[in-house]
């Protein structure tokens, strides 16, 4: 089954869950949805698994919202009590002004058109526009909310975004050994990074974009070489293009 190409509607036998029978059901990710007691593909992609985690590797940049997804969105407008947000889906999302940490009816967030936010998909229905939240069940942000303190955002393929969110993928930890930085990764293919200098931001962006064609076993050497280029002790290479 590993590396098999799946199409929307294909049933994934290895991910079939018999309710109440499994103590450790499989964790499903990008490209899969639960229907009754089955897991099916909801978009075309390459089946991948690691332990009890299963997902589809998708090269497309088109994003289909799913409940629980962490996304980066751009404020495109304001309603009476909500913001309109572009998350790269077919429909714009909304986020209530009360779904931010510390927000009240008298103290609403002061976000404006063009600002970037990091949120979680709270409602996803093909008949309704997606709804986001920037707080957890305790009404705490915990990293979610407006990203208005500088930084740089850019687009990547959905596959890169999901790789970066996978705990066992070592790229960000390897970069962090030499560069102090902040990052927010949206499964919708948008990434925000911030670092002390613009040179470091450019280097991180380069490594993320070029990681798509770098095997995992070569990542350590790849990062070391990229850091050397940033520090000027190795010849520079052509700058990769954003995946717009």
Automatic annotation (TrEMBL):
<protein>
    <recommendedName>
        <fullName>Ribosomal RNA-processing protein 40</fullName>
    </recommendedName>
</protein>
<dbReference type="GO" id="GO:0071034">
    <property type="term" value="P:CUT catabolic process"/>
</dbReference>
<dbReference type="GO" id="GO:0000176">
    <property type="term" value="C:nuclear exosome (RNase complex)"/>
</dbReference>
<keyword id="KW-0698">rRNA processing</keyword>
<dbReference type="Pfam" id="PF21262">
    <property type="entry name" value="RRP40_S1"/>
</dbReference>
<dbReference type="InterPro" id="IPR037319">
    <property type="entry name" value="Rrp40_S1"/>
</dbReference>
<dbReference type="GO" id="GO:0003723">
    <property type="term" value="F:RNA binding"/>
</dbReference>
<dbReference type="GO" id="GO:0071051">
    <property type="term" value="P:poly(A)-dependent snoRNA 3'-end processing"/>
</dbReference>
<dbReference type="InterPro" id="IPR012340">
    <property type="entry name" value="NA-bd_OB-fold"/>
</dbReference>
<feature type="domain" description="K Homology">
    <location>
        <begin position="151"/>
        <end position="197"/>
    </location>
</feature>
<keyword id="KW-0271">Exosome</keyword>
<dbReference type="InterPro" id="IPR049469">
    <property type="entry name" value="RRP40_KH-I"/>
</dbReference>
<comment type="similarity">
    <text>Belongs to the RRP40 family.</text>
</comment>
<dbReference type="GO" id="GO:0034475">
    <property type="term" value="P:U4 snRNA 3'-end processing"/>
</dbReference>
<dbReference type="InterPro" id="IPR004088">
    <property type="entry name" value="KH_dom_type_1"/>
</dbReference>
<dbReference type="GO" id="GO:0071035">
    <property type="term" value="P:nuclear polyadenylation-dependent rRNA catabolic process"/>
</dbReference>
<dbReference type="InterPro" id="IPR036612">
    <property type="entry name" value="KH_dom_type_1_sf"/>
</dbReference>
<keyword id="KW-0694">RNA-binding</keyword>
<dbReference type="GO" id="GO:0005730">
    <property type="term" value="C:nucleolus"/>
</dbReference>
<keyword id="KW-0963">Cytoplasm</keyword>
<keyword id="KW-0539">Nucleus</keyword>
<dbReference type="Pfam" id="PF15985">
    <property type="entry name" value="KH_6"/>
</dbReference>
<dbReference type="GO" id="GO:0071038">
    <property type="term" value="P:TRAMP-dependent tRNA surveillance pathway"/>
</dbReference>
<dbReference type="GO" id="GO:0000177">
    <property type="term" value="C:cytoplasmic exosome (RNase complex)"/>
</dbReference>
<dbReference type="GO" id="GO:0000467">
    <property type="term" value="P:exonucleolytic trimming to generate mature 3'-end of 5.8S rRNA from tricistronic rRNA transcript (SSU-rRNA, 5.8S rRNA, LSU-rRNA)"/>
</dbReference>
<dbReference type="InterPro" id="IPR026699">
    <property type="entry name" value="Exosome_RNA_bind1/RRP40/RRP4"/>
</dbReference>
């Amino acid at each position: 089954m590993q590396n098999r190409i799946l199409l929307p509607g294909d049933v994934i036998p290895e991910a079939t869950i018999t309710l109440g029978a499994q103590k450790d059901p499989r964790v499903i990710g990008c490209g899969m949805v639960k229907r009754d007691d089955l897991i099916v593909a909801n978009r075309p992609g390459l089946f991948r698994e690691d332990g009890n985690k299963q997902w589809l590797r998708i090269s497309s940049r088109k994003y289909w919202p799913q409940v629980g997804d962490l996304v980066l969105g751009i404020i495109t407008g304001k309603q009476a009590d909500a913001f309109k947000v572009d998350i790269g889906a077919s429909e714009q999302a909304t986020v209530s002004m009360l779904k931010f940490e510390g927000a009240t009816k008298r103290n609403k967030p002061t976000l404006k058109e063009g600002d970037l936010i990091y949120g979680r998909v709270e409602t996803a229905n093909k008949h309704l526009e997606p709804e986001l939240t920037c707080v957890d069940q305790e009404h705490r942000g915990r990293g979610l909310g407006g990203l208005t303190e500088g930084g740089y955002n850019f687009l990547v393929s959905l596959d890169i975004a999901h790789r970066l969110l996978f705990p066992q993928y070592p790229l960000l930890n390897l970069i962090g050994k030499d560069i102090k930085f902040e990052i927010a990764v949206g499964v919708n293919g948008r990434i925000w990074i911030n670092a002390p200098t613009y040179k470091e931001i450019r280097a991180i962006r380069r490594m993320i974009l070029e990681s798509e064609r770098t095997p995992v076993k070569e990542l350590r050497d790849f990062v070391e070489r990229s850091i050397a280029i940033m520090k000027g002790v190795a010849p520079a290479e052509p700058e990769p293009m954003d995946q717009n």
